[in-house]
Write a structure and sequence with these properties.
Immunoglobulin-like, alpha+beta, 4-stranded mixed beta sheet, 3-stranded antiparallel beta sheet, 2 domains, single chain, 1 helix
Length: 126
Protein backbone atom coordinates (compact mmCIF):
# COMPACT_ATOMS: atom_id res chain seq x y z
CA UNK A 1 0.00 0.00 0.00
CA UNK A 2 2.88 2.43 0.77
CA UNK A 3 4.47 1.90 -2.65
CA UNK A 4 1.19 2.57 -4.50
CA UNK A 5 0.62 5.74 -2.54
CA UNK A 6 4.17 6.91 -3.25
CA UNK A 7 3.73 6.08 -6.94
CA UNK A 8 0.43 8.00 -7.03
CA UNK A 9 2.08 11.05 -5.45
CA UNK A 10 4.91 10.84 -8.00
CA UNK A 11 2.43 10.77 -10.89
CA UNK A 12 0.53 13.74 -9.46
CA UNK A 13 3.75 15.67 -8.98
CA UNK A 14 4.80 14.90 -12.58
CA UNK A 15 1.46 16.10 -13.98
CA UNK A 16 1.67 19.31 -11.93
CA UNK A 17 5.22 19.92 -13.14
CA UNK A 18 4.19 19.50 -16.78
CA UNK A 19 1.30 21.94 -16.30
CA UNK A 20 3.59 24.52 -14.68
CA UNK A 21 6.11 24.25 -17.53
CA UNK A 22 3.40 24.58 -20.18
CA UNK A 23 1.83 27.56 -18.42
CA UNK A 24 5.20 29.30 -18.08
CA UNK A 25 6.08 28.92 -21.77
CA UNK A 26 4.78 31.92 -23.70
CA UNK A 27 5.52 30.06 -26.97
CA UNK A 28 4.02 32.20 -29.76
CA UNK A 29 2.25 34.80 -27.64
CA UNK A 30 5.15 37.25 -27.39
CA UNK A 31 5.10 40.08 -29.88
CA UNK A 32 8.20 41.18 -31.73
CA UNK A 33 9.50 44.54 -32.68
CA UNK A 34 11.53 44.34 -35.89
CA UNK A 35 14.54 46.61 -36.21
CA UNK A 36 16.14 47.18 -39.59
CA UNK A 37 19.55 45.64 -40.18
CA UNK A 38 22.69 47.71 -40.26
CA UNK A 39 24.90 48.10 -43.32
CA UNK A 40 22.64 47.63 -46.30
CA UNK A 41 19.23 48.23 -44.73
CA UNK A 42 16.55 45.64 -45.34
CA UNK A 43 18.93 43.35 -47.25
CA UNK A 44 19.06 40.95 -44.32
CA UNK A 45 15.91 40.34 -42.32
CA UNK A 46 14.54 38.05 -39.64
CA UNK A 47 11.52 36.46 -41.36
CA UNK A 48 9.99 34.75 -38.34
CA UNK A 49 10.70 33.70 -34.80
CA UNK A 50 9.22 31.62 -32.02
CA UNK A 51 9.86 31.45 -28.31
CA UNK A 52 10.14 28.35 -26.21
CA UNK A 53 10.80 28.34 -22.47
CA UNK A 54 14.52 29.04 -22.73
CA UNK A 55 15.10 29.17 -26.49
CA UNK A 56 14.41 31.71 -29.22
CA UNK A 57 14.40 30.31 -32.77
CA UNK A 58 13.97 32.03 -36.09
CA UNK A 59 14.86 32.40 -39.75
CA UNK A 60 17.00 35.06 -41.40
CA UNK A 61 17.09 35.75 -45.16
CA UNK A 62 19.46 37.60 -47.48
CA UNK A 63 17.38 39.71 -49.88
CA UNK A 64 20.44 41.39 -51.36
CA UNK A 65 22.08 40.56 -54.69
CA UNK A 66 25.40 40.29 -52.84
CA UNK A 67 26.67 37.53 -50.59
CA UNK A 68 26.83 38.19 -46.85
CA UNK A 69 29.62 36.72 -44.74
CA UNK A 70 29.55 36.13 -40.97
CA UNK A 71 25.84 36.93 -40.62
CA UNK A 72 24.96 37.62 -37.00
CA UNK A 73 21.49 38.10 -35.49
CA UNK A 74 21.54 40.46 -32.49
CA UNK A 75 18.50 40.18 -30.22
CA UNK A 76 17.46 42.80 -27.66
CA UNK A 77 15.17 41.31 -25.02
CA UNK A 78 12.47 43.73 -23.83
CA UNK A 79 9.99 43.52 -20.96
CA UNK A 80 6.32 44.57 -21.10
CA UNK A 81 7.29 48.24 -20.70
CA UNK A 82 9.83 47.95 -23.57
CA UNK A 83 12.74 48.21 -21.11
CA UNK A 84 15.86 46.37 -22.33
CA UNK A 85 16.61 43.34 -20.18
CA UNK A 86 19.70 42.34 -22.14
CA UNK A 87 21.23 41.62 -25.52
CA UNK A 88 22.44 38.35 -27.02
CA UNK A 89 23.66 37.34 -30.44
CA UNK A 90 23.96 34.24 -32.57
CA UNK A 91 26.22 33.69 -35.57
CA UNK A 92 24.34 32.28 -38.57
CA UNK A 93 27.30 31.92 -40.94
CA UNK A 94 27.40 32.95 -44.61
CA UNK A 95 24.33 33.61 -46.78
CA UNK A 96 24.44 33.91 -50.54
CA UNK A 97 21.92 36.07 -52.35
CA UNK A 98 18.41 34.70 -51.76
CA UNK A 99 19.53 32.18 -49.14
CA UNK A 100 17.93 31.85 -45.75
CA UNK A 101 18.99 30.05 -42.61
CA UNK A 102 17.42 29.05 -39.33
CA UNK A 103 18.99 30.06 -36.03
CA UNK A 104 18.52 29.13 -32.40
CA UNK A 105 19.55 31.04 -29.30
CA UNK A 106 19.60 29.77 -25.71
CA UNK A 107 18.03 32.59 -23.67
CA UNK A 108 20.14 33.66 -20.71
CA UNK A 109 18.44 33.63 -17.31
CA UNK A 110 18.22 37.43 -16.98
CA UNK A 111 16.44 37.66 -20.38
CA UNK A 112 13.76 35.02 -19.80
CA UNK A 113 11.16 37.55 -18.61
CA UNK A 114 11.17 39.17 -22.06
CA UNK A 115 7.86 39.62 -23.85
CA UNK A 116 9.18 41.59 -26.84
CA UNK A 117 12.26 41.44 -29.03
CA UNK A 118 14.21 43.71 -31.36
CA UNK A 119 16.29 42.10 -34.08
CA UNK A 120 19.32 43.56 -35.79
CA UNK A 121 21.15 41.57 -38.46
CA UNK A 122 24.82 42.29 -39.14
CA UNK A 123 27.14 40.95 -41.83
CA UNK A 124 30.29 41.54 -43.85
CA UNK A 125 29.31 42.17 -47.47
CA UNK A 126 31.24 40.63 -50.37
Amino acid sequence: MGFRRLLGLGVQLGVCLVLVVLAAAPAHSATAVQKKSTGKNRDLAVLDHERWIDTLKGTVKNFSKASARDVTVVVKFLDKKKKVLGTQQVNVGDLRSGDQSSWSLAIQEQNRLATNYQFEVRAIWQ
